[in-house]
Design goal:
- This protein is 36% helix and 18% strand.
- By secondary structure, it is of the alpha+beta class.
- It has a two-stranded parallel ribbon. Strands 2-3 form a two-stranded antiparallel sheet. Strands 5-6 form a two-stranded antiparallel ribbon.
- A hairpin with a 2-residue loop joins strand 5 (64-67) and strand 6.
- It is elongated.
- The relative contact order is 0.10.
């Protein structure tokens, strides 16, 4: 992790709300956290979740996110990352060699 990364772990949605409140209190004093770049990833998602907020803004609940250039999925599989890299490699191949002829 870098100095500007933060991961909060919680056993329940209520615990996460408490943790976010503490982070929000510290961040509002120091201005180091951007709600627009903050996402919630829930593992073992319950049926319903509350709306999580930071600095008064609703946070996106996602099943995957991009971290240091790679997609991290909720299921732990790398299939989306492999798809993205395959498309990028194909695009570079077309630039170098042109489309394949039959």
């Amino acid at each position: 992790m870098y100095a500007d990364d933060l991961a909060l772990l919680a056993d329940s949605p209520d615990d996460l709300v408490v943790h976010l409140g503490l982070v929000d209190a510290v961040a509002s004093k120091n201005g180091f956290l951007k709600a627009a770049k903050t996402e919630i990833r829930v593992v073992g998602r319950p049926m319903t979740l509350p709306t999580f907020k930071l600095s008064g803004k609703d946070l996106l609940i996602t099943d995957s996110f991009k971290y240091l250039g790679a997609f991290v999925a909720d299921d732990g599989l790398m299939s989306r990352e492999m798809d993205v890299r395959s498309v990028c490699a194909l695009a570079v191949s077309f630039k170098i060699f042109g489309p394949a002829s039959s």
